[in-house]
């Protein structure tokens, strides 16, 4: 069997959804819409957060970071896929594949850590409201955000660098629409036990462990909410956590199903669908979920639109 290392492979070929030619156009249109909505929603969220002093709070600082990494994550996965569909080539260079793999791992890992830190922020806000400004001060929030990015980027670098030296079987056909690390490992002929061990350790650190921290945070949050005597107070406290919980369930549900599924379960089509959900649907829904019924975001958006006299129609819709 012919062996080749990564550097000797010039081009990788994506199978993607080519075996379904009748639905390829539909998939392209859906992915294009998801990408455009993701860009629009996250850019708007960042645009209204930065200039508005009322949104200079820990929650919106973390939310801006989440929007920024969602833009990068979606762009790294869907942009090459859309470009390949238009050109009809379905290929990617070696450097492009390595970059795409690193970016997807880095952005996904960073989001894992960031979502757990956002749960801690909600815990402090509800369980220790009087000490919240002291505990979650500007410096602490910046350190948390920087720590999330550093952790995600470093773990992604370790995973990517552990795969690049491996020898391939001379087959450069990837049965996905992106250079996803699990799909690339299926092209490797040599023993991948060490790489799988590294991935397992990192997956445990970035998936079940943050989920555990989120569950503990919300256990304390639920206990504190139930102690509130007024129904209005309980409803207000629940509303501050609903959006984050929805995003956590959506993100971790798809991530856990992809990376921690039993080895006996191996369905390429299910994997492609789950990868598409992670790359397109989740980043698209994040700004919608966080801005839905959020009065602060609506007020800030109105202020942004008022600066442009041509947006009066949009303002009337938001009322």
From TrEMBL:
<keyword id="KW-0297">G-protein coupled receptor</keyword>
<feature type="transmembrane region" description="Helical">
    <location>
        <begin position="141"/>
        <end position="158"/>
    </location>
</feature>
<dbReference type="InterPro" id="IPR000725">
    <property type="entry name" value="Olfact_rcpt"/>
</dbReference>
<feature type="transmembrane region" description="Helical">
    <location>
        <begin position="102"/>
        <end position="120"/>
    </location>
</feature>
<protein>
    <recommendedName>
        <fullName>Olfactory receptor</fullName>
    </recommendedName>
</protein>
<keyword id="KW-0552">Olfaction</keyword>
<feature type="transmembrane region" description="Helical">
    <location>
        <begin position="237"/>
        <end position="260"/>
    </location>
</feature>
<dbReference type="GO" id="GO:0005886">
    <property type="term" value="C:plasma membrane"/>
</dbReference>
<feature type="domain" description="G-protein coupled receptors family 1 profile">
    <location>
        <begin position="41"/>
        <end position="290"/>
    </location>
</feature>
<dbReference type="InterPro" id="IPR017452">
    <property type="entry name" value="GPCR_Rhodpsn_7TM"/>
</dbReference>
<dbReference type="GO" id="GO:0004984">
    <property type="term" value="F:olfactory receptor activity"/>
</dbReference>
<keyword id="KW-0472">Membrane</keyword>
<feature type="transmembrane region" description="Helical">
    <location>
        <begin position="25"/>
        <end position="48"/>
    </location>
</feature>
<keyword id="KW-1003">Cell membrane</keyword>
<comment type="similarity">
    <text>Belongs to the G-protein coupled receptor 1 family.</text>
</comment>
<dbReference type="GO" id="GO:0050911">
    <property type="term" value="P:detection of chemical stimulus involved in sensory perception of smell"/>
</dbReference>
<dbReference type="GO" id="GO:0004930">
    <property type="term" value="F:G protein-coupled receptor activity"/>
</dbReference>
<feature type="transmembrane region" description="Helical">
    <location>
        <begin position="60"/>
        <end position="82"/>
    </location>
</feature>
<feature type="transmembrane region" description="Helical">
    <location>
        <begin position="272"/>
        <end position="292"/>
    </location>
</feature>
<keyword id="KW-0807">Transducer</keyword>
<keyword id="KW-0812">Transmembrane</keyword>
<keyword id="KW-0716">Sensory transduction</keyword>
<feature type="transmembrane region" description="Helical">
    <location>
        <begin position="197"/>
        <end position="225"/>
    </location>
</feature>
<keyword id="KW-0675">Receptor</keyword>
<dbReference type="InterPro" id="IPR000276">
    <property type="entry name" value="GPCR_Rhodpsn"/>
</dbReference>
<dbReference type="Pfam" id="PF13853">
    <property type="entry name" value="7tm_4"/>
</dbReference>
<keyword id="KW-1133">Transmembrane helix</keyword>
